[in-house]
Amino acid sequence: MYALLRTSLLAGLAIAALVFPLAAMAGLSAKAGFDSIDTLSVEVTETDPPLTSYVYAADGETLVSLFYDEFRRHVALDEVAPVMQQAMVSAEDSRFYTHNGVDYRGIVRAMVANNSSGGVEQGASTITMQYVRGALQLNAETIDEVIAATEQTATRKLTEARLAMAVEEQLTKDQILERYLNQAYFGHNAYGIFAAAQVYFSKHPSELNLQESATLAGLVQAPSAYDPITSDQTQALGRRNWVLDRMVDIDYLSRGDASEVRGLPIELQVSDPPNSCIGIQGTPTEFGFFCDYFRRWWREQDAFGATPAERERELRQGGYTIITTLDPDIQKMANKHVNDAQSEDSRLAHGAVVMEPGTGRIKAMGLNRTFSYDQKHNGPHSNPSFDRKGNYPNTVNPVLGGGAEGGYQAGSTFKVFTMLAALDAGYPLDYNISSPNRVATSFVSATTACGGRWCPKNGSAAMAGNRDMWSGFGMSVNTYFAQLIDRVGADKTVEMAERMGLQWRSEGDAYYASEERRSGWGPFTLGVSDVQPIEMTNVFNTLAAEGLYCEPIPALRIIDPEGQELDAATPRCHQELDEDVARAATDAARCVTETQRKGAQCGPWGTSKIVGALAGRPVAGKSGTTDGDRASWFLGYTPQLTVGAFMADPDYIFNPVGKSNTTKSKETAGKIFRDALKGVEEVKFKPPSRDIMYGD
């Protein structure tokens, strides 16, 4: 009885408000007064609902992922099938094109129907009033404002009705219908008609037919009750057929056409749109790690908000179209090769990063892991002191870089920083140092093996001899670089690493890299600092670009909902190294992958000849392994492409990769060069000047 009286009272008040608006409005709060109603109606017409951001590969067609809080994409009214427009008007507001925002006859009809049933069977809200209610919720800044926009009170109904009439004075009927169709909720996280057509029928709203349109129009009143996906469709069929009858009643449809559809089942083609790099359907999950790197990059860009949280909200609600730097073909190659080279120890991560010199654009990020939160079937953690599952084969950790987590020691690849510091200081490539199997340096060591001095030795006795930068780098002679950093200065070497983009990712590294201690950090040249694959790949990408340093960037174009292209995706580059210094480093780095080069004293072998052999063209680079073979690396480049490959255990860095795996990073990099550059014209490295090669 109370519900019946309350419903009658609300309806009566609404009618009174419309017939005697001055008397009704006098009782409302100041915010609902005439002046504020006019102001508020302008805000309502300018409402921008949250929109989904679409992220594509560099080809502009391959979907990488979506980002959204509410799956919604705006479409113009002429992009919605006319039959869908008619079905929605029939279901929600049959006199939409004749009333002024409030349907007086509908209010009376609803009051009579509800009184007869003893409950609320029919609503009196027009499409315009429903749009107003939704807009008020979207514009709400507090929970109280959300409640005020939806509470079942006479005051709210009166305010909504007055706003609806004001909106009708500012917008055309087509504009209101377009906004409503893009705002309405259809269930299954489908907000707006574009999302609804995608989720239920996997098609564009312009392609919807009669039975699909009637089904969707019937959902808006109660998406859960009429859900055709999870229910037995009895309720959904009844509601769809009711919509068909309404379309007949207002002459949108003939009875014969309606009868043909009434007997048909609801045939769905359900899709589950991807969100935040997870659940991608129809595209390989191999895009997940690149996608997550993009998300982390976006959170760091000041252009999208003051804080990381604000920036992510902008990504999830801003409706951007983002063309990334990802090359889907190279990505597939990278994933194939890192997985083909899988170790028998599945705990070991094997990954590769591919970049473009001169722009910093990331072309691929391959990893022998699946980007997934579902880790219930993962193997045990490789750290024996941890009683929990490890991050293999499924993980969402940024193994290749981009997060705040630490990295992995990169071994002899760090010799590049000592060589660059020496070249930058004026040492020539032919700078010769007698390099025995073990050498004592001036750097202090905690060990007593060499009288308290740091005294590294070579990987093999055959490396000993008179070496210069060509042979020392090509053969990876530890004692040559131990003496070179002693002469150039460890502080200059650490400074060079910082110039090339390295960050200190552990307390220990930050301690030794501090201004007061870096001059004593001789072991730095052998790669004792942690580094992420993405940043180490970019070091060699800078050499490939002849000293032009570019920040790693995953975005090619960023377009806002108005079609304006933002400059946030513009490469951020500056000349960090003298071109001649970079070319000289490249000349020495070619000794790593090539032997018996004309005009270069590369020594009897290079540590990574297999890369040059697989690539089938000149490649410069450097391999690296750490003490105990805990990680293996190869970082290399041509003038057109840079590849960084590594293998390590990201869960437990003390778990060795083993001697049998130390060549896999080289093989993977060589195969990526071979396949990615197939059919691409070879570009030759530019030689350095004679002055920087020879110290005559």
Primary descriptors:
single chain, 696 residues, alpha+beta, five-stranded mixed beta sheet, 26 helices, 18 strands, elongated, hydrolase, peptidoglycan synthesis, Carboxypeptidase
Structure description:
The chain is α+β, with helices and mostly antiparallel strands. 41% of the residues lie in helices and 10% in strands. It contains 26 helices and 18 strands. The strands form six sheets. Strands 2-1-3-13-14 form a five-stranded mixed beta sheet. Strands 5-4-18-17-16 form a five-stranded antiparallel beta sheet, sandwiched between helices. Strand 16 and strand 17 form a beta hairpin. Helix 6 crosses helix 9. The N and C termini lie far apart (106 Å). 49% of the residues are buried.
Structural class: alpha+beta
Count of DSSP-assigned helices: 26
Q: Which regions contain 5 or more consecutive residues with pLDDT less than 50?
A: 1-34
Distance between the amino and carboxyl termini: 106 Å
In which order are the strands of the major sheet placed?
Answer: 2-1-3-13-14
If you average the pLDDT, what whole number results? 89
Overall, the morphology is elongated
Radius of gyration: 33 Å
**Main sheet properties:** 5 strands, mixed
Strand content: 5-15%
Secondary structure: number of strands: 18
Estimate the helix proportion, in percent: 40-55%
Concise summary:
By secondary structure, the chain is α+β, with helices and mostly antiparallel strands.
Question: What's the helix and strand layout?
Answer:
Layout: H1 2-19, H2 21-26, H3 34-45, E1 53-56, E2 63-67, H4 82-92, H5 104-117, H6 127-139, H7 143-150, H8 154-170, H9 173-183, H10 193-201, H11 210-219, H12 234-249, H13 255-262, H14 288-299, H15 308-317, E3 321-324, H16 328-340, E4 349-355, E5 362-367, E6 370-371, E7 394-395, E8 408-409, H17 415-424, E9 433-435, E10 465-467, H18 469-474, H19 478-488, H20 490-499, H21 507-513, E11 530-531, H22 533-544, E12 548-550, E13 555-559, E14 565-566, E15 573-575, H23 579-593, H24 609-615, E16 620-625, E17 631-637, E18 642-648, H25 664-676, H26 690-693
Parallel strand pairs: 1-3, 6-7
Antiparallel strand pairs: 1-2, 3-13, 4-5, 4-18, 8-11, 9-10, 12-15, 13-14, 16-17, 17-18
Protein name: Carboxypeptidase
Domain Glycosyl transferase family: 68-247
Family: In the C-terminal section; belongs to the transpeptidase family. In the N-terminal section; belongs to the glycosyltransferase 51 family.
